[in-house]
Structures are given as structure tokens and as C-alpha cells.
Amino acid sequence: MRQTRDQTPPHLRAEWSQRIKNWLFDLASFQQAHRIHLFLSFQSEVQTLLWLEDFFALRKKIVVPVMGDGEERLLLAEIQNPDSPMVPNRFGILEPPQGTFKSIPPESIEFFLLPGLAFDRRGGRLGYGRGHYDRLLEGLPSHIKKAGLAFGFQIASHIPQMPGDVLMDFVITENGCITCQKD
Residue 104: in which H helix or E strand, if any? Predict the structure, then answer.
């Protein structure tokens, strides 16, 4: 999946990312949420970095993931505006600089937007193998919504589930929302 995504022309990824954002903005659950977790796109992922200004225009509070130095769990940091300073972490993913933010508890977020290598129609998610998001999301109340963002070719017929894997409430591609009957 990563290779196919990497080989997709940038102009298509940009066009599809815009369509994914449009589908997302139509979701009632998203519209009602005030505090949103937004992953900051890395390499060929859905291009969420382009959405920051739109999120702030909607008066959403934006929380982004931060990989603590040497930690195997994600921290969450609220950013104040689309121009908030960001630096690449040890994986090359942009995040606020260490020491410049107060960690936000995951229970205070109403809607999580999540990356992945592949998703299925049940909401199964294949991440990057480290389990960061599964540990972060495990045990959160069911009213907190989770949406996987992916390109259409990243939808698999079945993602095997392991104990501790967290299902998505929504999976959104450029072709629409796969599991939006829950909205």
C-alpha cells in the first residue's frame, strides 16, 4: 500500500485529499465537534497539512500528535493557529517543538482523524506497526469519533484484528465515507 501511495502522482494525491476533506466537512459528527485531532501528513499520506487554515476558519481547536523523546506513546498538543511552529521529529513527521506545549488528554478530543496504510469496510485499520494510535485510543468513550483517512486504493477486503486494535467509526476516501451509517 505504501508503495502504491508513493507512486501516485502528487497532483492526484492533492485532488483526492481535497475531496476527502469535503466529505469530512459534510459529516454531522465532524461539524458538531469542537476539538479535533489532526495527524500532520507525512510523505504520501492524505495531505492534511493543507487543511489547517480551513479547520481554523471553522473555529475548530486543533490537536496534533507529538512523539515524546524516547517514548513509545503519543502526546497530544493543541496548536494555536495554522502558522504554529513545527519541527520534524525522529521519523521526519512535523510536530510542535518539545517544551512549547501542554499535553492534552485524549478524552478531551471529540473527533480523531487518523492515518493508516490500509482500512477495511468494518473500520479495521492497518497502521505502521508501532501501535501508537491503538494505545492512545484504547478505552476512550464511544462518543469520541474516530475517522481513518485514506485514498480509495487503500481499502482492503479485510484487515486482521489483534487484541487492542481500535476500529474506526468512519473511513473516508476521495470516493466518500465508507462507514458513515454511524453518523
Answer: none
